[in-house]
Design goal:
This protein is mainly alpha-helical and about 210 residues long. It has helices at about 5-20, 25-35, 40-50, 60-70, 75-85, 95-105, 110-125, 135, 145-150, 155-165, 180-190, 195-205; strands spanning about 60, 95, 130, 175. This is Calcyphosin-like protein.
Length: about 210
């Protein structure tokens, strides 16, 4: 199960409130992403990945500014440039966007991270680090889905819709990587106060031992 819409709404409201009183550039960017719901940070990651034509997994200043703009992040150019410099630790004029997203991701306790990775491992049946429709067969039961039961959707359509819930709205490719799964659940985690409740939610959703 992806994060509930109630969690998304609560998190978006909370992020918008905090944004009004926040001056730290990294925290402001994090809150702008979380104001879009659980998939907000992952969506920004997708935007950057699309721009990374040579698969170098790095961004220069121009790409960084364009990515923020394309994703609709409201940020002054000067603030964005300062943000870039904070991540360009070696002064090479490039930032590693995986490192950038990990820093941007709301912190998760080790206990939460462990249960998220446990869920990913269960879903990634082939063990190749990516969840696809093939992985979901036999792990995710579609028979209780109302649209499958009334004949409106096929099994594959239910699976695809499920995977899309982890994807950013602009780039749905029907695949979910471990990083995307973590990025998504770090968003869900940000709206849940206690480890106990988060772990219980994950275990119930994914029927983990």
């Amino acid at each position: 199960m992806a994060g509930t819409s109630r969690h998304d709404r609560e998190m978006a409201i909370s992020a918008k409130k905090q944004l009004a009183n926040c001056s730290d550039p990294i925290e402001r960017l994090r809150l702008q992403c979380l104001a879009r719901g659980s998939a907000g940070i992952k969506g920004l990651g997708r935007t950057f990945r699309i721009m990374d034509d040579d698969n170098s997994r790095t961004l220069d200043m121009k790409e960084f500014l364009k990515g923020l703009s394309d994703y609709g992040v409201l940020i002054e150019k000067e603030e964005a440039m300062n943000l870039f410099q904070q991540f360009d630790r070696d002064g090479s004029g490039l930032i590693d966007f995986d490192e950038f997203l990990i820093t941007l991701r709301p912190p998760m306790s080790n206990a939460r991270k462990e249960v998220v990775l446990q869920a990913f491992k269960k879903l990634d049946k082939t063990g190749d680090g990516v969840i696809t429709i093939e992985d979901l067969r036999g792990v995710y039961n579609v028979k209780h889905h109302p649209k499958y039961r009334n004949g409106e959707w096929t099994e594959d359509q239910v699976f695809r819709k499920f995977l899309d819930s982890f994807d950013s709205p602009d780039d749905k490719d029907g695949k979910v990587t471990k990083e995307e799964f973590l990025n998504y659940y770090s968003g869900v985690s940000a709206s849940i106060d206690t480890d106990i409740y988060f772990i219980l939610m994950m275990k119930n959703a994914w029927k983990l031992d």
